[in-house]
Amino acid sequence: CRAILTVGFVLTAAVQSVCAFDLGGRIEAVARRCDAVSDESVGGQVTTVRMLLNCAREAATGSYTDGLALVNAAENQCALLAERGPGDGSYAFEEPGWLGVANGRLALLFKASDESVELKAVYHAVHDHQFLRWSIDRRPLWAVTWYKAPPLDTEADRAQHWRNRMPLSDGVHNSTAPALCSFRADAREGEASVELHWLGKEPVLATKIVCTLPPNSGLSYWRIVVENDSRKGIRDIAFPIIGPIGVRSAAQRDYLAVPCKQGVLFRNPGVNADLTDMWNDSPFMQYMGYYTDAGSGLYLSAHNPDRVFKKAIIEAEGGLTKVGFQYPV
Q1: Residue 122: what are its φ and ψ, rounded to 5°?
Q2: Do 200 and 177 touch, CB atoms closer than 8 A?
Q3: Residues facing 238 on adjacent strands
Q4: Could you tell me the CA-to-CA distances from 5 to 80, 115, 259, 289 in Å, in that order?
Q5: What order do you get walking across the sheet with 232-245 strand by strand?
């Protein structure tokens, strides 16, 4: 028999200020230790510490719990860095509640538990820039539009069904829905990877994502596999869904380039990005580029071996931006 007691409390403004100051001191102390032991080299482990600290600075202003957990993770990784040396190649790490991959150019951070997994950071190591703004809300990384599958017993039945009509949607299931989750990070022969699993409860969907980061590369490679309940059909898959993207300071400027029609450049995409009036089955080259006036850029592209017509996901969210791709199945 096990009893679980949950206690909730609210920090007053004064206590929050003291806590934030305490985290700020720890963050700067870890940053100094990291610089001292890195020996001016920037490998995956050095990038990991710096990404965790970058996230902790922002997270602490809205969630002391997240800020504290990130600082603890950074201290652990800095201790390992001092013990092992900076190394080279790509690096994979797991800390309580967190996992990710990093090299000298790029790092990815996921917040993970046995009930949920979220992408929390896409980090530009060269510019010390985190593209995702910290959010206490859970954000979907993927979404599946499903429908109730008719009883089609033969291949001919299924072919006839698809010729007659495209199935309507009966619901959307995404990575924030109730699920049993598992995850692991691994590094082999200089290449790092994260493997994430969701087992959805209703509808029953088994989803696996593998994210791979080669050594000394600014490109990470993402793959999704979805296995559905035989009683449910899959109409389309949205993956990856990346957001909220934006800049921390109002003094900074950001842009989103989309190769749709003659090409579209959204200035301040968190306010202005909208494809509603220009989509209409327009040719789309299946990539997009986000960048800031400070020179940090994020490239997102869909691998397309089957020449499937994919749709861009681009949404302004009150000053921040969400991007991704939607694939018909």
Answers
A1: -125, 110
A2: yes
A3: 143, 326
A4: 34, 19, 53, 47
A5: 171-174, 143-148, 232-245, 320-328, 311-317
- Which of 19, 38, 41, 42 is CA-nearest to residue 30? 38
Query: Over the stretch 60-87, which tens digit does the pLDDT of each residue have?
Result: 888 889 999 999 999 999 999 999 887 7
Helix 13-38, helix 64-84: angle, nearest 10: 20
DSSP class per residue in 106-125 = EEEEEEE-SS-EEEEEEEET
Q: Give the distance from CA 181 to its chain's centroid.
A: 16
**pLDDT tens, position by position, 198-256:** 998 777 789 999 999 999 899 999 999 998 876 777 888 999 999 999 998 877 899 99
| Prediction pTM value | 0.87
**Residue reference for tokens 């089955």:** 281
Sheet holding 297-301, edge to edge: 264-267, 254-258, 287-292, 297-301
